[in-house]
């Protein structure tokens, strides 16, 4: 008897038996199956199935990147209810704006510590023009030509288009010419317009978010994509979100990775005060892996689910842990209990002890070093 048959013969939830067959036959799962998978308590079967798909796609490899986050400013015109990072008033003592020199120094620290990537996300500053954001990219590129600049969410790209009068395509072409390497996936939150009205009323809707990513893909830029879960959304909203991403990926193939972001509940305006639970984190990773059959990688973002859950998630459908990060603000302002940075050696240990083979990767998942 094959290992997979033996393991799945122990499955206990009849509701998911037909889904098991579909997964084993490589069939695409519809909306209803995603919801059933979220509702099952047969968490081990769910994890086994998700891990089966991960290993079919990526073998035993689990990835990490040596990277640094840089948040140039937290001054932001949006007023997202879950966000503890942004400051509407630039005179608030918690508001900050980094100078070009400070940004270059942060990038220099990253390079000196082995980083291949900087991940840049910040606020929509009411007084910064598009040129300021372009300069951030070009000044880093000029000083560190080999560093991959993963910068600016679709929400920021839409803002640049508004303040410059340029189309999404023109904004992205200018950023690419300045040295942009790829787009990060933030700002997706939950696509459901009803939930978005509650948690992020001023933020662009999902159609624009996906249009911007698809435009980037057509210009040869890859991107990642995310989902903020664990607040006021339902399982149905999560599955709907995943399917909209799956449809966009069918069109362009440009998403490298899906990242479920666990809601952090402190210092924000959303009246949801609990962190996500370990089971919900694992289910969300596993269901993502099973629904998003056309995305190669699913990330267990240790910053938001903690190192221990992220490690376990490597056996529940995830094959990537993000990276060293070096300085994290967005999750920590909202109460994240994880460290704000990570040593490469720790990531290697977490991956090895999960029974996987650590691979240091670049932003686009090219292996840099395999730790057999
Ligand atoms: O856009 C904000 C989210 C995102 C909270 O692309 C929150 O590889 C949880 O997108 N609780 C920024 N989440 C981080 C992000 C990201 C992180 C790591 C890797 C990648 C990638 C992307 O964080 C925001 C928003 O969606 N966020 N506040 C909060 N209270």
TL;DR of this structure?
The protein is an alpha/beta fold. It contains 15 helices and eleven strands. It has a seven-stranded parallel sheet with strand order 2-3-4-5-6-7-8. It has a four-stranded mixed sheet with strand order 9-1-10-11, with helices on one face.
Shape: globular
What does the largest sheet look like?
A: 7 strands, parallel
Q: Which H/E pattern describes the elements?
A: HHHHEEHEHEHHEHHEHEHEHEHHEE
Spatial order of the strands in the main sheet?
A: 2-3-4-5-6-7-8
Separate helix tally? 15
The number of strands is 11
Strand content: 5-15%
Assembly state: single chain
Number of domains: 2
The CATH architecture of the largest domain can be given as Alpha-Beta Barrel
Bound molecules: ligand V47
CATH class of the largest domain: Alpha Beta
Low-confidence stretches: none
Mean pLDDT: 97
Q: What percentage of residues falls in helices of 4 or more residues?
A: 40-55%
Distance separating the two termini: 29 Å
Task: Name the CATH homologous superfamily of the largest domain.
Answer: Aldolase class I
Structural class: alpha/beta
């Amino acid at each position: 008897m094959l290992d997979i048959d033996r393991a799945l013969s122990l499955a206990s939830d009849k509701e998911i038996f037909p889904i098991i067959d579909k997964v084993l036959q490589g069939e695409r799962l519809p909306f209803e199956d995603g919801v059933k998978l979220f509702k099952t308590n047969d968490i081990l079967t769910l994890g086994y199935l998700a891990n089966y798909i991960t290993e079919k796609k990526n073998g035993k490899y689990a990835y990490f990147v040596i990277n640094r986050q840089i948040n140039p400013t937290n001054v932001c015109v949006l007023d997202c209810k879950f966000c503890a990072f942004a400051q509407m008033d630039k005179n608030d003592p918690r508001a900050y704006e980094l100078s070009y020199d400070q940004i270059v120094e942060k990038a220099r620290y990253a390079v000196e510590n082995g980083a291949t990537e900087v991940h840049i996300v910040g606020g929509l500053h009411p007084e910064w023009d598009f040129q300021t954001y372009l300069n951030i990219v070009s000044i880093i590129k000029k000083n560190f030509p080999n560093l991959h600049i993963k910068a600016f969410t679709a929400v920021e790209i839409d803002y640049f288009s508004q303040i410059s009068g340029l189309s999404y395509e023109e904004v992205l072409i200018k950023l690419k010419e300045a040295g942009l390497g790829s787009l990060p996936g933030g700002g997706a939150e939950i696509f459901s317009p009803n939930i978005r009205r509650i948690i992020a009323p001023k933020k662009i809707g999902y159609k624009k978010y996906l249009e911007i990513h698809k435009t980037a893909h057509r210009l040869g830029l890859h991107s990642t994509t995310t989902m903020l879960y664990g607040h006021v959304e339902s399982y149905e909203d999560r599955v709907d979100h995943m399917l909209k991403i799956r449809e966009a990926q069918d069109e362009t193939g440009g998403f490298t990775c899906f990242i479920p972001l666990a809601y952090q509940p402190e210092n924000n305006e959303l009246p949801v005060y609990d962190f996500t639970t370990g089971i919900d984190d694992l289910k969300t990773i596993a269901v993502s892996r099973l629904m998003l059959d056309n995305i190669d990688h699913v990330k267990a973002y240790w910053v938001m689910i903690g190192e221990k859950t992220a490690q376990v998630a490597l056996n529940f459908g995830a094959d990537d842990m993000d990276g060293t990060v070096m300085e994290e603000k967005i999750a920590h302002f909202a109460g994240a209990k994880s460290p704000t940075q990570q040593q490469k050696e720790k990531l290697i240990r977490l991956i090895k002890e999960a029974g996987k083979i650590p691979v240091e990767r670049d932003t686009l998942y090219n292996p840099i070093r395999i730790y057999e």
